[in-house]
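Hey, can you fold this one?
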Amino acid sequence: MPVIARFYGISVKMYFKEHGIPHFHAIYGEYNGVFDIQTLEMIEGDLPRRANRLVREWAGKHQAELLGMWKTQDFKRLPGLE
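Sure. Predicted structure:
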């Protein structure tokens, strides 16, 4: 699973052979969250509140690119939060 972005100790990854709703994974230490690309809600996982907020902020800035990657299965690295 390639890393799409890294910021503040959070790694954002996407499996390119997965099915279901468009989503990505965010890993922060021992915590993991799965986020729906269309709603930016965490649909599974246990990320701490602050990490969840940072991931949602980041995803809001890159939502169109994330959805495009999901549809085309074409990986590209995205910048993190600054």
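The chain has a mean pLDDT of 94. Let me know if you want another pass with a different chain boundary.
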